[in-house]
Write a structure and sequence with these properties.
- The longest helix is centred in the middle third of the chain and has 21 residues, at 290-310.
- Among the domains are: 1-128, Ankyrin repeat-containing domain (Serine Threonine Protein Phosphatase 5, Tetratricopeptide repeat), CATH 1.25.40.20; 263-401, no CATH class.
- The chain is flat, with a radius of gyration of 36 Å.
- It is mainly α and 648 residues long.
- Mean pLDDT is 84; it is low at 1-8, 10-14 and 643-648.
- The strands form 2 sheets. The chain has a two-stranded antiparallel ribbon with strand order 1-2.
- Helix 5 (60-67) packs parallel to helix 8 and helix 10 packs parallel to helix 12 (178-185).
- The chain has helices spanning 2-12, 17-26, 30-40, 46-50, 60-67, 70-79, 82-87, 105-111, 115-123, 141-147, 151-159, 178-185, 188-196, 215-222, 225-233, 248-254, 258-266, 273-283, 290-310, 332-337, 342-360, 364-378, 382-398, 406-417, 424-434, 444-461, 468-483, 494-499, 511-514, 523-533, 550-558, 561-569, 591-599, 605-616, 629-637; strands at residues 90-95, 98-103, 132-133, 136-140.
- It has 35 helices and 4 strands.
Amino acid sequence: MMDEVFSLDILYADEYVPEQLYQLARHGLCSQLDARLHELSNSTEYLAALTWHGQEQLSLLMVAALNGYDDIVRVLLTHCDSTHQIELKGQVILYDAKLVKGATALYCACYRGHFTVAKTLIELGQANVKQDIRDHPYYPLFIHATIMNRQDIVHFLLENKYADVNETKSNDCDESTALICAASRGYTSLVKYLIENGADVNYSSRNQNFRSTTAIMCATRCGHIDALRLLYNAGANTNITHITEDTLLVIAAKNKHYSIVNFLLEQSIYNTVDDLELAACSLFDISSSVEQMNVVFDLLRIALQKRQLLQIPKVCIQSMDIYNYEQECQTIDELDRIKADHDRIFIEILLIQERICSSRKDITIIKSLENYSDRLADKKEFDKCLNVYIHMFYCYQQTNINNNLARFVWLYCKMLTENRIIPIHRFIQVCYLTFDLTETKYIERTICNALFFVIIAIKILEQKGITKEEQTLIYSWIRDLCRHRLTTPSGQTLLHLCVDENTNYTLNFRRRDTIIHIKFPNESVLRLLLACGNRWLDLDEIESSSSDTPLHIICKRNRDQKIIKLLLNSGCHMDCVNKDGKIPSDYIYDKEIKALFTTKPTPDRLKCFCARIIANKRLNTGTSSALTSALKKFVFLHDSLRIQSDFN
């Protein structure tokens, strides 16, 4: 009776027509809704009312689907082109109080568990089960339901043959099946159900990061032991490898999934002796518990036993000072003797990784070397730590990874903090080793590190007992650095970086230890660069964004009087203009600094005067063969009327 009263109120209320229909659909008043739609069938409001999206962004069909009104769904589908209604998308709370954008009526019905309505939408309304939801653009309903662990939806779609357990895949580049999605999330019961319904346990997705991303690899990588057991018992292939040739055992070890490692060992799931040894290396951590260390030793023991059984000798790497000239253990007795010595075990792990990873160009060894070097630095064994860094440098080169020169900078700063003497010949060796001055392109980080090395060089020059020969070595390296006119992608030279306070922000590796010794703007570095490389350094070079010279930058940002004076005394042009048409002194408001510009005679005044006349008169210099590119550039620097231009 209340519904009748309500419906009459709605029908005869002076309300916006779509709102009337919305209320009828929301309250399940099928006959009244049908009658009202018939009344509107010949009106201009008909289509708009039928597919109306109100404040909640819901069409009438979505409202009916959300509430499970199958009779209203059928009425709506008969009143208008069903395709138009079916494809409408809105925003609705479907699960876990999450607002989902782009949900169709089919999604509304399924996620509310109204499967009778869902069946009507698919069979009568021809709803597209493969259509993506906008909130997850690569997932059709079957895959999306799997990811959300909605087994009721998965069951509904499979049992009614609306989805195929193997053919329905994510629409992204991976093309993952439901089994892969369930295995990677550890949905054990769903994995079991999918396998029972014919899911291909050996299907490999097209993941760009993995050579063969099957369900069992996903379960292994994510540590889902129960899902792994189900897949193994279902006959999943265990001889698959990662793009770096890692097997299931190594993947489990790298991710510290001890239960999976034990399961794989129990089932003898490993390909080679190398797998066992690499797995042990991946599991090792200097802070590992006794239980974890036992797993590491079990793996190493099994590996040695297999070697003896199969008569596979170790081809050990050449002994090195960074490993205390140790060699790998050849027998179980040798292994047992080092069990209580964590430092020696660490070296054993490194020796194994060096032997296996070097031939594969595997970057795993680099991470281990980083941990080893950090431990040496903590123990203040700086010389050995430096040797490890140099060794790491060669490893970086072999694996085609950008060299992490920031570690060298950090180590030298640590040595300075500890008042340790930095051996000059070793320092120069590192300088030439890490900066290949034959390269024509440099990333900004590399050039900044070169500048940081110059600061460290200044600190070394202050050490007691330095000889003339050693001083000459340092000056010679700095001259070579200047001679190659290093420039960042943004057009900044060593001089720009030297006077720019923003260079401090490139100290992004253990900044707390390095900022004590390395700060910008830096007068000492500027003075040394000018003394060693003035003939190669262009004082008036401009960077790309604002056409600022080094003098512009120091005047705009820091206004360091000593640096400004040094640049002026070195011959930089105080009347060069940037893209804003301003000269450096335009940014100075301090009277004392301003006086430097008024009292200092402009170098090459006649040349500057002529350049300004040529620029301001807009004389055509392009056709004159007498003007070199350097002269054209000089004119450009004195053009106060320009907005943008190009030197090339």
